[in-house]
Specification:
Blueprint (H helix, E strand, L loop, with lengths): L1 H23 L2 E3 L11 H24 L12 H7 L4 H25 L10 E3 H32 L1 H6 L20 H19 L3 H18 L9 H5 L4 H8 L15 H5 L30 H11 L7 H18 L1
Helix pairs in contact: 2-4, 2-8, 4-7, 5-7
Length: 337
């Protein structure tokens, strides 16, 4: 009898506590209406990154035609036209194909798998639910960074992979926004589409969490290749892996450095693969004392411009750097003829 009374009281207390929680705390459920009535959140997760890519890169295209914005640009439009080996039409077709490929792959996941946790009922206080989403997204960021760092590094150190896959992306020595996903189709699938898909599956992201991840990663990648250093750009304020950091990787002297992408630089720091040789060590170049160490302070656009200008005059360049520069000059001569 006492056990029955005890169980009854315990059950009543639990019910009362649950009632209080439901009445006093904002509760959210993973089962909810789609953001847009005309499409599911799963479909929105597929098409919204494509819209973000072209909208965000379009903003930088507009800046290219504004004289007031040129002081924030890393390389001039003339330099991009001269040094880049791929035409903008060629880049455009490659990126469009990449978007078709990633959308098709994402749609295949939707039709062959159950939705990632959006159809079961789960009520939690809003701050717990959002904290869980934040943790899942943070883990997804780390997975993507790890996947892309090691595959990216491998494609630079394996000559066959570089020649047959990654060299396409490095036809742009002067990066620009809508060329961010200019890759060979296979590299684009392996590096971006598959890597992000694996992160999504491991962390079991809901459709709305996928929307956040895909759009954030897309815009961050575009920003890294935008060719601008904007003082009010949140991506460049929050992340050390920014447009200057990635521009170094696209230069002949930086091809074997700064592999980290798209978010953090912890792998470069751990493996000492970030570019550090900012001191212009050449007796023929006179450097003011306050400019001798670029590493003491943040490498801003003025210091980077100064570094690039004097780098061209260096005598002690690596053999690889000299060969790449000669290749660029040869390509420019063919264009002129």
């Amino acid at each position: 009898m006492s056990e029955y009374v005890s169980e009854t009281v315990t059950g009543a207390v639990k019910d009362s506590v649950n009632d209080v929680i439901r009445e006093t705390l904002p509760l959210i459920s993973t089962t909810r209406d789609s953001i847009f009535a005309s499409m599911s959140d799963d479909v929105l997760a597929l098409i919204s990154p494509v819209i973000s890519y072209w909208t965000f890169s379009g903003m930088f295209f507009i800046l290219d035609h504004m004289k007031s914005a040129q002081r924030f640009k890393i390389h001039s439009l003339e330099e991009a036209e001269k040094r880049n080996r791929a035409t903008k039409t060629h880049v455009l077709t490659h990126v469009l194909f990449q978007h078709m490929l990633q959308t098709a792959f994402g749609y295949l996941l939707i039709v062959t798998m159950d939705s990632t946790g959006t159809h079961h009922i789960s009520q939690r206080p809003f701050y717990i639910a959002y904290a869980i989403s934040f943790i899942k997204l943070a883990i997804a960021f780390l997975i993507i960074d790890t996947w892309q760092y090691w595959l990216h590094r491998l494609m630079h150190y394996d000559k066959r992979l570089y020649k047959n896959l990654h060299s396409v992306h490095h036809e742009l020595y002067v990066p620009y926004a809508f060329g961010a996903l200019f890759n060979s189709p296979l590299e684009g699938f392996l590096l971006d589409t598959l890597g992000t898909g694996i992160a999504m599956l491991i962390t079991n992201l809901s459709a709305r969490e996928q929307i956040i991840l895909y759009n954030f990663a897309t815009m961050k990648t575009v920003d890294d290749h935008c060719g601008y250093v904007l003082p009010w750009d949140p991506f460049q304020v929050l992340f050390k892996n920014n447009s200057i950091y990635h521009d170094i990787h696209h230069q002949p002297f930086g091809l074997k450095y700064n592999f980290a992408q798209p978010f953090f630089i912890f792998w470069d720091n751990l493996l000492d693969s970030n570019f550090k040789d900012f001191n212009i060590q050449d007796p023929n170049i006179q450097i003011p004392d306050n400019e001798k160490s670029f590493l003491k302070n943040k490498l801003d656009i003025n210091k980077y411009h100064y570094f690039l200008k004097n780098r061209k005059s260096l005598k002690n360049k690596s053999k690889e750097e000299i060969e790449i520069e000669q290749e660029i000059e040869s390509a420019n001569s063919k264009k002129a003829n």
